[in-house]
């Protein structure tokens, strides 16, 4: 009986092997076969993510990164921070207890590219914003082991000495608009001044930041230096906005899974 | 080496060099003050070096050899030597980054030497530098032998090999300067990506044209895998790297995708870089060099078919298992998990096919360290694909994800499978290509084998322990319902494992250095011997391309 059940499969297998024996003489048949076989999975899994509306939640309060925060994000990428820090709290209860409400898709809606990460050599940073003071971040980045003795994080003291390059920010924001981030013309044109204004609250440029990005935007000396805008300003401004672009994750979240 | 090109070919090579030099010059001028300018200088220097080689040959007389009676192995030889160079660089970087996690002061406080910047130098160095060059070199060798035909072209194999290495150098130097897209294993910026597409198209055309010349009705299994490697890597590379540069005179670009779609695209790429770069291509190596060295035919043709199409079809779906419990819709996670588990069937079919091929040749496995490299590689392939399917199960992934278990899994595959099959292939092909009797020292091969095996086992066990310990500590609650350990507590618990991991890596690196030395000495000092019947022929009887079934 076992034989009987298996025999159609055996015949199919036999047929397949014979067909293959003939088609494998043609390199273009193999080429097409490979492209089709390998194409299906990716198409079925990726294409619907762009068309199914429920994939990304609605969050009317979602705001964009300011030019200074975006510059900080670019530094975060440049230094490879994502290699050790994730920005994706999973729906597991222990992660919610440790880091905060689990991450929603909408929170990285404008993240080109996303920085969800794949390894936590250091802790998750998705809800880092406003957890520590600016001063804590600066001291921690300058010498991590002075703040957390057991840390294995590299030090980034050099960020404090490097003046932030802001002239390319209008171009960068324009590129982000090209890939779908809704920056306005005004925001793009003033990106350079806004970046410097956000880190120098006592200058005229600071007013433009609140006007274009909302009154809730933090405008302050992130790195504690009053006279110049450094890469440290940008990175700390970015770290302080992590998890703060929208409150969607804090509203009515079901409990995490055990 | 360029003396074997005809006058017309030398001119074409020279023209390509000039065009590259102009491109480098334009990049250097336009990208002043940006890392792109430094990359322009690198392109310019690289074009200059190749130009010198070509110019040295340009006045020489035309080659007199009859090209139909021999294979063209110069690019293969160069590729193998370059692969060994990258092995030492990439693994050396690996030991350094591993040591930084155990002793963070080993970073020495330069901006370029932080973990975040040199880690991609390690990953790209071993995957693309070592693995990629080995794949290109062995594919040239295998496609010629299994087709019984010479390479279709003499400039294009060099273009592919050297162009690919230019990509690797631009990538690695870029990471040190902070040029990265932050997409794991796809870090290089837009101009490097465009360049790789050009190189890859030439590679595909070369492959297809060589196959079209074959004196053998069937295309051998190894070539299916190499073909899948070339084709699918091209698709993955192009889609995942779609981006808009902030400016044409700077390196920075922004990915076309964002958030959840970007995450899915990235891990569709990331997982299939494993599938089609680190698996398909190396299975091509396995399917040629293992039966050849064992002098046994492949155990089952049908299993080869089953596993090949299984791998090509199933693997693509598996990427979403990197995103369990995240903001990715659950239906995609479930699909990823399901296909990852099913993937075990074709994976074990390949591993089993390889091991069964050794039936009747186990005494050779005992005596011959080269064949033992390949045997152990097949075993590690089986083990790490089992582990991969296991870790793709949601419940397991909740523990393993974000921990060192993932790192251990990757290295079981990369060291145990990819590197061992590569070293086995190198040891079996080097004497043939340089017309030597054997490798310079079989004792060094033996030493390399045991160092590599010990290094892999120490590494993988250390990472299993650290990963599982950390995963469990993260989720441990006290009786009062609060988390028992702070993140720092779990980090402190990792220290002994990080030390052990660095030691395992150092052993593996030592083995690779021995390999490089052994190959160098073989080229320089081993006694000569003309290989028998290693030339194109239309007759199956004089030389079967691979051992034929009895």
What this model shows, in words?
The complex is a heterodimer of chains A (258) and B (550). Chain A is mainly alpha-helical and 258 residues long. Chain A has 11 helices and no strands. In chain A, helix 3 crosses helix 9, helix 3 crosses helix 11 and helix 9 packs across helix 10. Chain A is elongated, with a radius of gyration of 25 Å. The two termini of chain A are 45 Å apart. Chain B has 550 residues and is mainly α. Chain B has 2 domains: 59 residues; 442 residues, Cytochrome c oxidase-like, subunit I domain (Cytochrome C Oxidase, Chain A). A two-stranded antiparallel sheet of chain B has the order 1-2. In chain B, strand 1 and strand 2 form a beta hairpin. Chain B is globular. The two termini of chain B are 40 Å apart. The model of chain B has no long low-confidence stretch (mean pLDDT 94). Classes of the chains: A mainly alpha (258), B mainly alpha (550). Chains A and B meet through helix 1, helix 2, helix 3, helix 4 and helix 7 of A and helix 3, helix 4, helix 6, helix 7 and strand 1 of B. Chain B: This is cytochrome-c oxidase.
Compute the CA-based radius of gyration of chain B. 24 Å
The number of helices of chain A is 11
What is the CATH homologous superfamily assignment of the largest domain in chain A?
Cytochrome c-like domain
Question: Considering the protein shown, what is the CATH homologous superfamily of the largest domain in chain B?
Answer: Cytochrome c oxidase-like, subunit I domain
Q: Based on CA inertia axes, which overall geometry of chain A fits?
A: elongated
Average pLDDT for all residues of chain A: 93
What is the CATH topology of the largest domain in chain A?
A: Cytochrome Bc1 Complex, Chain D, domain 2
Helix content of chain B: over 70%
Quick structural summary:
The complex is a heterodimer of chains A (258) and B (550). Helix content of chain A is 47%, strand content 0%. Chain A is mainly alpha-helical and 258 residues long.
